DNA sequence: CTGAAAGCGCTTACAG
DNA sequence: CTGAAAGCGCTTACAG
């Protein structure tokens, strides 16, 4: 099938390419009714479809954005992408999805390729290790929005969770339920900034309640080391009675460990997870979760980016948009049976 | 930042655009060493980056493909996309992801937009309701691969699960464990073809074992109606003692119901799910699952598509590539306690 | 070994 | 109300 071009349409309809172009762009202001009709019919007859690549070259806009995540298989990422795609679809933008696997080299390559392909902007869950390119893009006023993490001193708009609050909500809830020996496990690799925020929130919540911080209760582990870390934690002289899982993957590791050791939740160990999981409501016991509004975060990021692309403003706002987590109390964080506390 | 173009490089390096182009395309056969050096330096100096849109216009290839799924939030879809993206990345292709939400109108719009953007091919989890476009694309030799479902009579290569086998594996396992009253719940909306295959497999397995088919045991429901359907099922005079959940979403609904009614698995009701879930190993009891090789399926689809794009062959192969599911036995399908069977 | 020229399929002032 | 012409930034025969 040799492609039908605008020139073909013009010839058959006995008008110039300009006029066909006007028609396509719905600039009918000065177009004769019959010209319009003729073009319309010819287009249908030839089954003509405009070549957007040609238009993009001229207009310097591809109505396409790039999204770089660590891994689309992470629930958070897929929710963010879904939201971005929804918002983009409303404005007839498309989204190219890239998995950087927390690998700065891969991230760099994707960024360069995406720019070469002239995407109108990017939303990145940054590895954080390509500060030079981030800066270069910022200087060139290239539209870009970060999600999930902020990066150092670069004033690029970032949409993130209030991570301190996330941990604080969990810890405070434990304390309110009579727990004092509370541990937290976070993930080294993924999400450096979120982890720091979560650990800070954890510490502050304890301080606010005049509970001294036990550094042994704070574990920062690769996902493959969580089982081991838990073992160490529970082998302490005074093991924690409650634990915060810093994200969904860690929660899963915790639950695997719990099952393998026949530990009862919450009797032996109370658990709260940050990030929702598909089984939180029907797991036995149902899981108390600090939920992250992933869809809202992705939506906001897309809105910011499209705004920046379309209005050419907003640049250098350096705004950090923080979303609030929500504590959903279920059974896994219930107060300790033999609590001496008599809170209600 | 006014973009640097090839013309700028050519001027500064004192060569023609042709030569710069040769350089970029690594056609060094006849290029003088110093010319090469000069171009290389100039490119670095100017921080020149080729505009791929311009190249695409000329070469009629965007090194971009489109993927249309129902919803990226479904585990299967995200695994398929991840695989596709991995394979494409190896060949420096990018992938545009679209969510059609099982909506033929949305699907049609995406297909048209993607073609207008000149993507080199598409991988579609088809709604099945746009046979006219599928046919049109097929006739135009537009590279396209279906995943998860085949569509009627169109000879477009399709990569799918052996759905009959999936259900058969589950049913046979139940039977081997002494179960005879076996129900199956499938999803109306999603995956029409897979559902039919699974129900067929279910029936055949029963027939092979000379167990008569009870139509009341076959439920075909929207996801929101699963709870209700389960209730009906278990209220039958002779309720099923074992159940196959036709996909991950249904399995989740089953587990919710089970929890709300304090039904014990497998004692009161044995369960097998088709499609893996994140909690299969540590759910109590651990879940027996018929796993679908989603990543492999996506990989195959991408390989087929890239092959078709690059070699311009394979068209009209009408091949249906079926992948085999795998039964992973855990605790939720254990033999009935009071079984009169004495199979080992 | 390198350059001039045409062309990919559009859009957009500008002229009439 | 419509058309001729230039141009977006590349690639590619072709000539020399």
TrEMBL record, chains A, B:
InterPro entries: HTH_LacI, LacI/GalR-like_sensor, Lambda_DNA-bd_dom_sf, Peripla_BP_I
SUPFAM superfamilies (alphabetical): lambda repressor-like DNA-binding domains, Periplasmic binding protein-like I
Record organism: Metabacillus herbersteinensis
UniProt keyword Transcription regulation, yes or no: yes
Gene Ontology molecular function terms on file: DNA binding
Domain of life: Bacteria
The keyword Oxidoreductase belongs to this UniProt entry's keyword annotation: no
Name of the molecule in the record: LacI family DNA-binding transcriptional regulator
Alphabetical keyword list: DNA-binding, Repressor, Transcription, Transcription regulation
Cited CDD domains: HTH_LacI (cd01392), PBP1_EndR-like (cd19977)
Pfam family, one: LacI
Domain HTH lacI-type: 4-59
């Amino acid at each position: 099938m040799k492609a039908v071009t605008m020139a073909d349409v013009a010839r058959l309809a006995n008008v110039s390419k300009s006029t066909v172009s006007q028609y396509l762009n719905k600039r009918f202001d000065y177009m004769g009714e019959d010209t319009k009709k003729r073009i319309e019919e010819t287009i249908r007859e030839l089954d003509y479809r405009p070549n957007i690549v040609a238009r993009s070259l001229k207009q310097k806009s591809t109505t396409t954005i790039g999204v770089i995540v660590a891994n689309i298989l992470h629930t958070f990422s897929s929710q963010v992408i879904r939201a971005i795609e929804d918002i983009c679809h409303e404005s007839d933008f498309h989204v190219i999805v890239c998995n950087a696997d927390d690998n700065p080299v891969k991230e760099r390559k994707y960024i360069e390729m995406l720019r070469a392909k002239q995407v109108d902007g990017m939303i990145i869950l940054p590895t954080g290790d390509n500060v030079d390119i981030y800066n270069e893009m910022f200087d060139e006023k290239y539209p870009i929005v970060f999600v999930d993490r902020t990066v150092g001193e670069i004033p690029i708009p970032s949409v993130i969770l209030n991570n301190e609050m996330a941990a604080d909500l969990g810890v405070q809830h434990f304390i309110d339920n009579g727990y004092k020996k509370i541990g937290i496990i976070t993930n080294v690799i993924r999400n450096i900034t979120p982890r720091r925020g979560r650990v800070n929130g954890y510490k502050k919540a304890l301080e606010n309640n005049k509970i001294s911080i036990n550094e042994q209760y704070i574990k920062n582990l690769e996902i493959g080391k969580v089982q081991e870390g838990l073992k160490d934690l529970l082998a302490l002289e005074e093991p924690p009675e409650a634990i915060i899982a810093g994200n969904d993957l860690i929660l899963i590791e915790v639950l695997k460990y719990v099952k393998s050791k026949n530990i009862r939740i919450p009797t032996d160990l109370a658990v709260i997870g940050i990030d929702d999981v598909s089984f939180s409501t029907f797991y036995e016991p149902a899981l108390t979760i600090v939920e992250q509004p992933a869809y809202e975060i992705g939506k906001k990021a897309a809105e910011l980016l499209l705004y920046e692309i379309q209005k050419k403003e907003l640049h250098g706002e350096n705004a950090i948009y923080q979303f609030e987590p929500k504590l959903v109390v279920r059974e896994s964080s219930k107060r300790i049976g033999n609590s001496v506390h008599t809170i209600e």
